[in-house]
UniProtKB/TrEMBL annotation:
UvrD-like helicase ATP-binding domain boundaries: 5-229
A GO CC term attached to the entry: cytosol
Single annotated GO MF: hydrolase activity
GO biological process: recombinational repair
Protein name as it appears in the record: UvrD-like helicase ATP-binding domain-containing protein
Organism (species): marine metagenome
PANTHER family named among the record's database cross-references: ATP-DEPENDENT DNA HELICASE SRS2, UVRD / RECB / PCRA DNA HELICASE FAMILY MEMBER
UniProt KW keywords: ATP-binding, Helicase, Hydrolase, Nucleotide-binding
InterPro entries: DNA_helicase_UvrD/REP (IPR000212), P-loop_NTPase (IPR027417), UvrD-like_ATP-bd (IPR014016)
Amino acid sequence: MKSKMDEDQRARLRAIEPDKSFIVKAPAGSGKTGLLVKRYLRLLSLAELPEEIVAITFTRKASTEMRNQIQDALESALTKKKPENEYEEDRIKFATDVLKQDKKKKWHLFDSPDRLRIQTIDGVSTFLTQRMPILAKFGAQPDVTEDAKYLYKLATTDTFNLFNEDKEFLHSIHEIILHFGNNIPRIKNSITKMLQTRDLWLRPVSTKYSQDKMKQDLVQLIENDLEMV
């Protein structure tokens, strides 16, 4: 047990090394966010500008949580708060180094907290397109869509428009049309629902997957849908 704990601790220490890159794979609740916070602070303490260090998250919730933890660490370092555990001790230590760099480089992080680049993937993409409008080929800045149902329906309609252009495509969904009793609106509705849950099926479809297995799963999906009607 002790050797496993030592190995885990060594891995956590390695992940903070600023001159190396790492992929961290660990279960939920194992402290990945806390580790990322410490690495971010460590890198920030060595940067010339705070904008050089970018943390990218999937969700706004994760971005907000990480930003709050970093600002809390900086405030704890400023007030010289006594750490309650080893994690907090490391975090305050790195935050203290950041404050030294902040003073040296005149970042004024407490007055300009937005200089901390902690963003979602969408946020980073928007940031890049704003600064490279010609390369991005955007006439106007795109907005992040909160409700994508309209786009899913539009994609479904575009898919069905392929019927008139690609007879082979029409042949490939012949069994689906039969299973749905030639009810095109129901088929469109099912495809729209599938797009909303594409994270559940996109990977096996986009990788090596036997055609027989795909047909079997598709038939099962349709049968389940019919049973619910």
